[in-house]
């Protein structure tokens, strides 16, 4: 069973709505043109200011047959429920989608947001139910 909150049928819908409002606040203050390294701490600060709990460069281990075979870092994880993958690119590419999907697949987190601070701000929401995951995580 997926975890639902008070935002209808969306998994962690209320939380993702708060994150997206914060994303647009940061974008409106900073605009486009900076590197991800600038947006990451700015977004984390704004999330904290809005009562959320971001973890920057959250570690992800990928397991194979019970052994860690790879390490990744998610840009930001909010309240241990939503992975944020930040981009500052002209166009979001399929590789960016795949990156976030792999992060979701390797963890017990089911919701991800791809946030692009490019010329035009954009986002994409991803759901990967734990019921559909293979045992690639040991968290």
Q: What's this model, at a glance?
A:
Helices cover 32% and strands 29% of the residues.
Describe the structure.
The protein is α+β, with helices and mostly antiparallel strands. It has one domain: Lambda Exonuclease, Chain A. It is built from three helices and five strands, in the order H-H-E-E-E-H-E-E. The protein has a five-stranded mixed β-sheet with strand order 1-2-3-4-5, with helices on both faces. The N terminus is likely disordered.
Let me know the number of strands. 5
- The CATH class is Alpha Beta
Percent of residues in beta strands: 25-35%
Give the structural class: alpha+beta
Helix and strand sequence: HHEEEHEE
Mean pLDDT score, rounded? 90
* Unreliable spans: 1-7
Measure the end-to-end span.
18 Å
Helix count from the secondary structure assignment:
3
Shape: globular
CATH topology: Lambda Exonuclease, Chain A
Helical content class = 25-40%
Radius of gyration: 15 Å
How do the strands line up in the largest sheet?
1-2-3-4-5
Structurally, the number of domains stands at 1
What profile does the largest beta sheet have? Answer: 5 strands, mixed
- The appropriate CATH architecture is Alpha-Beta Complex
């Amino acid at each position: 069973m997926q975890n639902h909150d008070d935002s209808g049928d969306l998994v962690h819908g209320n939380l993702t709505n708060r994150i997206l409002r914060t994303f647009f606040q940061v974008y409106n203050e900073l605009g486009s043109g900076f590197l991800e390294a600038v947006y990451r701490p700015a977004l984390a600060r704004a999330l904290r200011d809005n009562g959320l709990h971001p973890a920057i460069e959250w570690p992800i281990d990928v397991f194979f047959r019970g052994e860690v075979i790879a390490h990744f870092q998610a840009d930001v994880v909010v309240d241990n429920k939503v992975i944020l993958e930040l981009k500052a690119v002209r166009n979001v590419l399929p590789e960016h989608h795949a990156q976030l999907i792999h992060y979701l697949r390797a963890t017990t987190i089911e919701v991800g947001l791809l946030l692009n601070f490019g010329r035009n701000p954009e986002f994409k929401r991803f759901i990967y139910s734990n019921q559909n995951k293979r045992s690639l995580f040991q968290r």
